[in-house]
Design a protein that fits this description.
5 strands
Length: 223
């Protein structure tokens, strides 16, 4: 395919890492790098700029959440899909707070993983069933906490950007938003990127928290 999604696979178990890499390559993804420990993962991610990093959390040298934080901090357009043996809520929330776009447990099947990587590349949040509600609930809890510092004056968003932001706050995927608003998937992505720039935010996680803090999810439910 001419427009291959560039993927990096990070896992400290060579057989698992090789199997995931092979499955993704067979599905048409360009596996541009692999890594077996956290420090190596950060170095190779910065060198190869993958669009999606399939990341285990339990890594030697540097924990997966720190790998995620460093990669996303360096390249805010990078998407991180955690693929972990743990389904513990604390692990899921820590991964999302570090910038992960999605979280899949390793019991997922091959087709589920391939679909998750495709959707992650598009910017959609992908979670093992049951975890998405947990993450949205945590966003709501965080939104009730006092802000660490006085926020600057809110930038002006267009009506359409606000509309998209409300739907993001409700947990809809970009594709669902596009269907709801009768827009193209690309147009929705552009609105989200413009909104991130105006709000000086780095990723969808921060965007959802901002929207909930502003009460935009409540406004939608009342409309």
């Amino acid at each position: 395919m001419s427009d291959q999604v560039r993927v990096m696979v990070v896992d400290d178990h060579p057989m698992w890492r090789d199997a995931v890499s092979r499955d993704l390559a067979d599905a048409g993804f360009a596996v541009v790098a692999t890594a077996g420990d956290g420090e190596e993962a950060v170095r190779r991610a910065l060198a190869t700029t993958p669009q999606v990093v399939v990341l285990d959390l339990n890594l030697p040298a540097l924990p997966g959440v720190e790998v995620c934080r460093r990669i996303v901090s360096h390249d805010p357009t990078a998407r991180v899909l955690v693929l972990s043996a743990s389904g513990e809520h604390a692990d899921v929330l820590e991964a999302v707070k570090s910038g992960a776009t999605g979280y899949l447990v390793k019991s997922a099947g091959r087709d589920e993983l391939i679909d998750a990587v495709r959707r992650t590349a598009l910017g959609d949040p992908v979670f093992t069933p049951g975890l998405a509600g947990l993450v949205l609930g945590e966003f709501r809890r965080l939104a009730t906490e006092p802000a660490p510092a006085a926020a600057p004056a809110a930038p002006q968003l267009t009506g359409r950007e606000t509309e998209v932001l409300r739907l993001v706050a409700k947990g809809l995927s970009y594709r669902q938003i596009a269907d709801r608003l009768v827009l193209s998937h690309r147009t929705v992505q552009n609105h989200v990127q413009n909104t991130l720039g105006k709000l000086q935010l780095h990723n969808r996680v921060e965007l959802v928290r901002y929207a909930i803090e502003q009460g935009l999810d409540d406004e939608l439910s009342q409309g």
